[in-house]
Structure formats: C-alpha cells, structure tokens
Amino acid sequence: MKKAGEIVDGIYLIGGPNISHSSDATAFVLDFGNELVMIDSGAGASFRIMVENIEKAGLDPHEISLLILTHCHIDHIGSAPQFKRNYNCELVIHDLDADAVENGDPVLTAANWYDTEFPPTPVDRRLTGDHGEFQFNDEKLHFLHTPGHTPGSIALYIDRGGKRILFGQDIHGPFLPSFGSDIEAWRKSMKKLLDLEADILCEGHFGIFQPKNSVGKYIRSYLRRY
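^ thats the sequence. predicted structure below, dont judge the formating
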C-alpha cells in the first residue's frame, strides 16, 4: 500500500490500511479545481486522520461537494456521517445499497463484522441504471454498476492526464449470502472493468495497480479464483 499522497494529476489517496486505520478501505479525493469529490470514507475511527491527509495535500475539505460510496459496507462508509455533518457534502450511493445506509442495517453494512454500529444516515442521491456520469467543467467522472459483492456496488473511472484511472473497490469480494452477493453478476461486472482497459486501478484494500497490464492481471486473477 502506498502512503497518503497524490497518485496522478490531482487524485489523492487519503485513507486505507497503513494510511489512516487498519480497518479502513482505501479512500480517495479528486480535485476538480473549484470542488472536490471524495470516494469512500473508511470505517469511521479515522475521520480526523483523513481530514489531516486532505489538508496536507493542500486541499480544503470544505470544498468536498460529493462523497460517493462505492457500496454499503462499514469500511467504506463509516466516516460518511461525519463528513456530511462537518462539510455539508452530498452522500451518493447506488439505489440498491442505499437502504442499508439509511437504515443503519448492521448485517448489510457489515457493521456486525467490525463489532460496531453505523447510524442510520440519509442519502442525498441514489444512482440508478448500469452507468452514468458526473460532469465537472470539461471533465466527466463515470460510474458503472458492478453488482456482485453487494447488489449496489459501483466502480468509477476518469480519464485524466492521458491515463484512465479506475476506482474498483473490493474486486476481491468476499461473497456471502448475508451481503446479497451474486457471483455470476460479479463475473459480468469484472468483464465490464476489463473492457475499460484502465491504466491505473485503485483497489479497495490492496493498493494501486499500474500499468495497464498489471490492472488486467489483477482482475483476471480473481476471475480464475472464483
């Protein structure tokens, strides 16, 4: 796992194992000039550390307009209530995982795995459909619905600096009935990600993979496993 800092052209790794807290999935901030977008928010205990990492990158957390949650598990959503409360950012998640967040469901959020609780938290925007995009000036941040790990899992990608950067959280699973996992849907989702031919993969727990052949190799390794 890399240390907190810039990955490429205004895209920052600000949380994750060995960066903010061992329980955190990776968290990222994208700088669009006049606003910031955050992707995932760790498990909840490292809110202050992630804020410090954002500030150390020379960014103002008050400029976070959107916090996009890639799915409903606690290690990705734990600090979302604190970011929403402190910085008035909108919480965004796919419709199929939104109820788990709004209800604070201990099983669907996997909070019971971490012996903790997640407070019921309103979602501001529910994503629907197989794909879509967020427009920021002349740039687009794309999302793909990638069910499998959870029903509402998404991946995001952006083309910047001549490279395609993919945020493919929790490609590795796990896959459990209590999560609503669907291994066949996951296989189709992974093929969608392979078709993107991303140059850089930002994965949820195992770090940053590049160049393009390393991205494909990593995804295919799990397709062979399951």
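The radius of gyration is 16 Å.
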